[in-house]
Design a protein that fits this description.
Elements lengths: L1 E5 L5 E6 L2 H4 L5 H14 L59 H17 L3 E4 L9 H10 L7 E5 L4 H7 L5 E5 L5 H5 L3 E5 H11 L1
Parallel strand pairs: 1-3, 3-6, 4-5, 4-6
Antiparallel strand pairs: 1-2
Helix pairs in contact: 2-3, 4-5
């Protein structure tokens, strides 16, 4: 699969060959859905907690006598039918972690990348680098690439503080190291911008 490669000025500087095994793989939507649900589930802390009647403070004294008041029998104000009492069947801490084999996770990533490639939602640049962080310069670069107004995911082969800090102020753009590529970020953006080095890393990883 041939794709035009541009520079930061938006000029075509050549072409790059994208691996069919990675960017032209059969799309398995069920697998992508499973990988997305796993990622969302694993991000949950599971620290939710309510107190049962045995954990609510107070309520040790019988609120009123057993007979003669005309009211229902009550032994403690910690009962669930009292305001401030315990909660019945409330949430308790638990783990939401889901397991998924590595080959299935990689297949889901290939499917997501193939969806982006078939929709012409991948932009490859020969190099993406800056000496100092400058948001205005990054906005200009994205406009040169024809990505103004779109949500953009910028994949980097390795960390680059100037690039990351330049993009951090943009509401519709984010950076991610190619080694941390995931289905949620891929499907949640309009366009994926990748330097040539990031493409080579993905080929070596998923190819």
């Amino acid at each position: 699969m041939q794709l035009v490669m541009k520079n930061m000025a938006g000029e075509q500087v050549g072409e790059i060959e994208l691996s069919e095994a990675v960017f032209g793989a059969p799309v398995n939507r069920g697998l992508m859905h499973q990988a997305l649900l796993r990622q969302l589930a694993n991000a949950r802390l599971g620290t939710h907690k309510t107190k049962t009647r045995s954990e609510v403070r107070g309520g040790g004294r019988k609120p009123w006598k057993q007979k003669g008041t005309g009211r229902a029998r009550a032994g403690s104000t910690n009962a669930p039918n009292f305001v401030g009492g315990g909660i019945v069947f409330g949430p308790t801490p638990r783990k939401y972690t889901q397991r998924m084999p590595q080959k299935m996770r990689q297949a889901a990533l290939r499917s997501a990348l193939s969806v982006k490639a078939s929709g012409e939602q991948i932009v490859v640049v020969d190099d993406l680098s800056m000496d100092v962080p400058k948001t205005k310069a990054m906005v200009k670069t994205l406009e040169n690439l024809g990505l103004g107004g779109q949500s953009v995911l910028v994949l980097l082969a390795e960390r680059s503080m100037p690039i990351e800090r330049s993009i951090s102020n943009l509401p519709n753009a984010k950076t991610l190291e190619s080694g941390y590529l995931n289905v949620r970020d891929l499907l949640g953006c309009d366009v994926v911008v990748m330097p040539k080095a990031a493409v080579e890393h993905i080929h070596a990883w998923l190819g």
